[in-house]
Each structure stands twice: as structure tokens, then as C-alpha cells.
Write a structure and sequence with these properties.
Layout: H1 8-40, H2 54-79, H3 88-92, H4 98-140, H5 162-172, E1 181-184, H6 191-204, E2 208-213, H7 225-237, H8 246-256, E3 260-265, H9 280-294, E4 298-302, E5 314-317, H10 323-332, H11 343-353, H12 359-370, H13 384-401, H14 412-432, E6 436-438, H15 439-443, H16 453-463, H17 472-484, E7 488-490, E8 494-497, H18 500-508, H19 511-514, H20 518-526, H21 533-542
Parallel strand pairs: 1-4, 1-5, 2-3, 3-4
Antiparallel strand pairs: 6-8, 7-8
Helix pairs in contact: 2-4, 5-6, 10-11, 10-12, 11-13, 12-13, 14-16, 14-17, 14-18, 18-21
């Protein structure tokens, strides 16, 4: 075999290849350093957003040109003479063919300028006003942007999620490279709170975040993220418009300028209440694929679910909070910061309950700390489940005593009865693996399973003081009270618990009665894709109750 020829040309080519590799390596390292520097400065400077405003600028310039032309003509009409440098009448008033072609140019330019003036009037009179109103309303009411958020979410400070939100904005800002993002987290990890914080940062960047509640989607045809967001936005701004069709114009202008971000919550409950069986996995994949084709800026929050594996989207796992952020939140909740306080006790409780893994318990600590009831939570060395049970017990006692939501003037007896009724409903919801429970299921009129219901009703009658569980009006009053205490969302035919941890704790208070029926766990584990995570959490909390809800003398 002949050896390859080596000579001056081969040496020159080898030298050139080495220089190209070195230059390419230096360029890649420089780009990496620039990206790392930008990432380090991300906490001090908000991530920008790429707008598409060239068309709007062209419209405004055209409108200004027409207004300037009209004003100039009015001035010359009054003065009856032209400036020496701008004798337009002489330019177009000469002989042929200049006069003819000058008239043709004027006729051609007037049409686009008049159209630009009409569009500019729409932009100034409707578009800018509606966008400003939406931003102001979103800052005052967080539920406007994230409808699945709790009623008092506006008074809650969200900490420790800014870096994640900046990363999401970075992935969504460019229309050419964006993909749907799915934020995955378990019960109480703060998915909805993260979406609320993301909406705040988007509003600060002059973006219009639009929240979509996926829990009410019960047909495959309704699962269209673009249409759901458009309908939600048009219903929101309808009161600020005067003519039919203006809402669609505002939406299209926002879409052209790349100012829309869709925030969807509750993906795991899509088609949960459908009357007909559907291939849920295929429906979800097709909806996400449609969003990818439309290049829709979409952020979805979901619990871990099987269909997530095949979605054409970027999956982001919600990481636990840092301990420093948790302590910062608790300090901010103190009503009297000047008084001395045992911060070592707060730190120990944050670690015992492992609130970094479930920020919902961080809210409980903050609320108890605000009303000076945190000292009543006894320390224990039995693990985080025991610490969480004690936190929930003290939180429930604060609700009944009126220390929390004290502006809702209901006596302790009525509050206690309402919590008992909601606990019975929560236990039935645990059996059916549903956050939403119909009132008829408690009375047995819904035609559903009866596993454990009779024992739950018997226990409920024994615990109530004034209300009658057989009276629909009394049950409705308890549900309304639960809505005012921010435990449930009242619906026409029942309630929906605002949080899975709330349902798990309230349902655990009646597991002693429900477990007396062997069919309760059989139905919970064998139907509705069960058991649900709320039931597993309730069983974990029930193990820490030490028989507190066992009535003496009961067989």
C-alpha cells in the first residue's frame, strides 16, 4: 500500500485545519462565557422579550404623515402662500406628463395613509387602553390571570421561584425556537403559585398572560389551547369594548406583536368528568402537537401523569425551595417584627415539616406565625408526616377559632360544623379520586357507589352541633362557609377543594369511620385510576392522628 503523499501543500492544509479548529474552539468558549455571564446576571436583570412591532410602527408613521399633510394643507389654506422650499403646487401644477403622474402618486398614497389613520385610531383608542387595563387588573387580582389560584392568592408572597420563571421566559421569548413547557410537581409543591409568579414577571415585561383552567374540559373538541385562551381573553375584556368584533382585533394585534403567553393549569384533570370514554393520551398529544405547529407560547402545570411521557413538549420538574427562601417568607409574615421571637424554633419547624419539598406547609407556617399560634405546634421527632399533621391541626383550630379569616363574621360553632361537612365530602372525594365532589354523593342520591358513605354520614351526624346533614340547605350553608374560609370553591351542584393537601387532611378526619366499610378501600384502589395521591397522603396523615377521631364507646 502506498503511503499518502506528504509535501508542502499537505503541511499547509494541515496547518490551516489546526488554525480553524483553534479559532472555532475559542469562539465556542467565548460564547459559553457570555451565556454564563448572562445567566449569572439574570437575578438582577429581567429577561427581555422579543416583540414584533414593525407593523405598528409603520401604521403610526403613516398616520402621522397623513396628519402632518392635513395640518400643512390647513396652514397654507389660512396663509394663502407656500414656503419657498416646499412649493408642492408648482411641482404638481406644471404641464403634462408631470401633473398626471403626480396625481396618480397622490391617489395611490392617500388610500394607505387613510387606512393607517384608521388603524392608528384603533391602536390608541382600544388596543393600548385595553392592554393597560388588563395589566392593571392582573396586578390587582391574580385570579384574573390564573383562574385556578386560591381566593387569597393576592395576599401571598411567592418566594424562591424567580430563577425558574426567568428560565421559562427565556424559552418562550423567541417565536422561532419556542416549545410548550410542562411544569410537573406533586401535591403541595407550589405549581399554581409558580404560575402566578410567572404571570407577574410577564406583566412586568409588558406581556399579556392569559390563564386557562383545564379542569372543566370534558370533550376532546374543547381541548384547543389557542381557542381556550382567546375565548378567555375576549370574555375578560368584553366590558372595556364598545363594538362587536373589537375583541378579536385586539387579540390578533397581540398575536402579531408576540405579546401573548398562555398559562394552563390542571392538565391531569382533563376529560376527568367526561361522560363518554376517550383515548385521553391521544387527545392530549394531539392538542400539544397543535400548539407546537401554531408556535403558541404555552406553559402547563400538571401532576406526574402517564401521558406526559409522550408529549411533544419540554418537561420541567419543580424543584424544592431553598431553606433560606422559606425562612424569608416566614419572616415577612410577622405582624410585629420588632418583638423578639424564637427563630431557632421556626427554623426547626421548617426542617421538621420539610416545607422545601411542599411549600403549601410553608403557607401554613406563615399564617400561624402571623396570628401568633406557631408556639402551640409541638416539636416531635417522628418524621415530617407527624410535623405536618400538627401544623394542619393547629391551622384547623385557628380557622374554627376565627383567628384566620377573621373578617368573615361566623361563630365558632358554625365554622366547626362547616369543616365537619366539608371533611365528610372530602372523604367521599378521596374514595372517588376526585377533587370535585357533588353534594348528592353525601346524601346517596347521585346513584354512585355507597362504599363507606353510611358510616361517614353516621359519624357526621354525631359531630354536628346545629346543622342537619340531611337538609340540603344546611349542607349548602356549610359549603358557602367553606368557600369564605378558602377551603373549597362552591359550585352549583357541589364543591371543589382548592388544594389536594386540604382535601387529604379533611378527608383523613373521617377515615376512621370510612374504613369500617371494607368496600371503601376496594373501590378507591380499584376504580377511577386509583388510588389517588390525595388518598395516599390522607392515609399517611391518618397514621399520625393517634386515634384522635375515635369516639369512645364505639364498637
Amino acid at each position: 500500500m502506498r503511503r499518502p503523499a506528504r509535501g508542502p501543500f499537505w503541511a499547509a492544509e494541515l496547518w490551516w485545519q489546526q488554525r480553524r479548529r483553534r479559532w472555532r474552539t475559542r469562539r465556542e468558549r467565548h460564547a459559553e462565557r457570555v451565556i454564563r455571564r448572562r445567566m449569572d446576571q439574570r437575578t438582577n436583570h429581567r429577561v427581555g422579550w422579543r416583540y414584533h412591532r414593525r407593523l405598528r410602527w409603520a401604521i403610526q408613521l403613516g398616520a402621522l404623515a397623513l396628519l402632518a399633510w392635513t395640518a400643512y394643507s390647513l396652514v397654507l389654506l389660512v396663509l394663502d402662500r407656500e414656503p419657498h422650499l416646499l412649493r408642492l403646487s408648482q411641482w404638481c401644477g406644471g404641464g403634462q406628463p408631470r401633473a398626471y403622474y403626480c396625481g396618480q402618486v397622490q391617489d395611490f398614497v392617500k388610500g394607505p395613509l387613510v387606512l393607517a389613520l384608521g388603524l392608528a385610531i384603533f391602536l390608541v383608542g382600544r388596543y393600548f387602553w385595553v392592554r393597560h387595563w388588563y395589566h392593571a387588573s392582573a396586578l390587582r387580582n391574580r385570579q384574573l390571570v390564573v383562574p385556578t389560584a386560591e381566593r387569597d392568592i393576592s395576599s401571598i408572597r411567592i418566594v424562591g421561584r424567580d430563577e425558574l420563571c426567568d428560565l421559562i421566559i427565556q424559552r418562550l421569548r423567541d417565536r422561532r425556537t419556542r416549545r410548550p413547557l410542562v411544569l410537573v410537581g406533586g401535591i403541595g409543591t407550589g405549581k399554581t403559585a409558580t404560575l402566578v409568579r410567572l404571570a407577574e414577571l410577564l406583566t412586568d415585561t409588558r406581556i399579556v398572560p392569559i390563564g386557562v383552567d383545564l379542569r372543566g374540559v370534558d370533550t376532546p373538541e374543547a381541548l384547543d389551547f389557542h381557542r381556550l385562551a382567546r375565548d378567555r381573553f375576549q370574555r375578560t375584556i368584553d366590558t372595556q369594548l364598545h363594538a362587536e368584533g373589537e375583541a378579536d382585533k385586539v387579540w390578533r394585534q397581540l398575536w402579531v406583536e408576540n405579546r401573548v403567553v398562555v398559562i394552563a393549569d390542571g392538565l391531569e384533570e382533563v376529560l376527568a368528568d367526561a361522560q363518554q370514554p376517550y383515548d385521553r393520551d391521544s387527545v392530549l398529544r394531539q392538542a400539544i402537537r397543535t400548539a407546537v405547529e401554531e408556535r403558541l407560547p404555552l406553559v402547563i402545570a400538571s401532576r406526574p401523569d402517564d401521558p406526559l411521557r409522550g408529549l411533544d413538549a419540554l418537561i420541567l420538574q419543580l424543584e424544592p425551595l431553598a431553606e433560606g427562601a422559606a425562612l424569608e417568607y416566614v419572616r415577612a409574615q410577622r405582624r410585629q417584627p420588632g418583638r423578639g421571637y424564637r427563630w431557632d424554633r421556626v427554623t426547626a419547624l421548617v426542617r421538621e415539616a420539610d416545607v422545601a419539598d411542599s411549600p403549601f406547609y410553608l403557607r401554613l407556617i406563615g399564617q400561624l406565625h402571623e396570628v401568633d399560634r406557631l408556639d402551640r405546634v409541638e416539636s416531635c421527632d417522628r418524621g415530617r408526616s407527624a410535623a405536618r399533621w400538627r401544623l394542619l391541626e393547629e391551622w384547623c383550630d385557628a380557622l374554627i377559632a376565627g383567628d384566620l379569616y377573621e373578617d368573615y363574621g361566623v361563630p365558632q360553632t358554625e365554622r366547626g360544623d362547616a369543616i365537619e361537612v366539608l371533611s365528610a365530602l372530602a372523604c367521599i372525594g378521596l374514595r372517588n379520586n376526585r377533587l370535585r365532589v357533588r353534594t348528592a354523593e353525601l346524601a346517596g342520591d347521585a346513584g354512585g357507589p355507597d362504599a363507606g358513605r353510611r358510616w361517614i354520614m353516621q359519624e357526621l351526624r354525631a359531630r354536628l352541633h346545629k346543622l342537619d346533614p340531611g337538609n340540603p340547605q344546611d349542607v349548602g350553608l356549610a359549603e358557602t362557609t367553606g368557600g369564605e374560609l378558602n377551603l373549597v370553591v362552591k359550585h352549583q351542584d357541589g364543591v371543589r377543594f382548592v388544594h389536594g393537601v386540604v382535601q387529604a387532611y379533611l378527608g383523613a378526619r373521617y377515615l376512621t369511620a370510612a374504613l369500617r366499610d371494607d368496600g371503601f378501600l376496594d373501590h378507591a384502589f380499584g376504580h377511577n385510576d386509583g388510588p389517588g395521591r390525595e388518598l395516599l397522603a390522607a392515609l399517611t396523615l391518618y397514621a399520625q392522628s393517634d386515634g384522635r377521631f375515635e369516639r369512645p364507646g364505639r364498637a
